[in-house]
Model the fold of this input.
Amino acid sequence: MDEIRGDEIRGKAEGTAPVPLSVLDLVTVGQGRTATQALRTGVEIAQLAERRGFHRYWVAEHHSMPGVASSSPAVILAHMAAHTERIRLGSGGVMLPNHAPLVIAEQFGTLEAMAPGRVDLGLGRAPGTDGATAAALRRTERLNEGADDFPQQLMELTRFLDDDFPDGHPYARIHAVPGPVQATSEGGVQSPGRPPLWLLGSSGFSARLAGMLGLPFAFAHHFSAQNTIPALELYRESFKPSAVLDAPYALIGVAALAADDEREARRQVLTGALSMLRLRSGRPGLVPTPEEAEAYAFTPVEREFVDSWLVNIVHGTADEVRTGLDDLAKRTGADELMITANAHGGEARLRSYGLIADAYGLPGA
Done:
């Protein structure tokens, strides 16, 4: 295995934050905005996160969703690598069953060459979309096969990243480039590192697998809050020390938005809640404006969904958000909090990350 050090995984808490803070950017596109504007906002968020001491910036693979412009994580991360210098960049995550493992190894080997020592490869087993779109991506109707084969696909990807298929394996003479093979070629010089692997999950499957393999684990608390503590407990109980980690390391994705007052925070998070309601109802679209969300006539069933969704979004003033994040870190024992701020406009999201950084006294103010 190529060298992966634990300090490439573990973050450092800055200011008064209880644990390291990071950013998950869904590159959301609001009504009246373009994908170009959303990606420019992504650059601003990554730069703000770097300047203020957030540990990492991740993007997540989604497909066929007009309001989410992160269908190609590797492309977005290459763009972010060109506009940042120190912050870790990664996928939260790439959906492994959607891709050939060799393709992912090549893409993230390229990213590692662009930004040595600061690339994370987070992997999920869900499609990141609906069944029909997943079938189009994978060129097959056998969607369960990809999820069921996840451990085998993970092993294959790891072999490509480490360039260590055993003799006699059909892929023994196939090499992911950029990658370790360049160091063993005549006259070759290659960095000994490669992106650390993370497993992502919203239930127990990846939690157990990450623990058994001694890998870091990222849990999607922002949309599966009821499963957070059971999944983290399962990860810790299953954990076996590895060459990557000697102890468990788990981060959780947290939906959080801070504003100058409670009413404005509520206005902003309601846009994301309405967007999620439409997605869950089979009507995905651009993120609505705060004005549309406030004026929307929710049915009783829709109101129940929205209220239950908002319960798990930490929102309010900066002090209220800080208190909510502190409580969440204490309740879950998470080693890192990865904050996603979903709102219609980039201004509100940038303001939120800045307010949270200020509330914790992060550097670079």
The two ends are 40 Å apart (CA to CA). The mean pLDDT is 92.
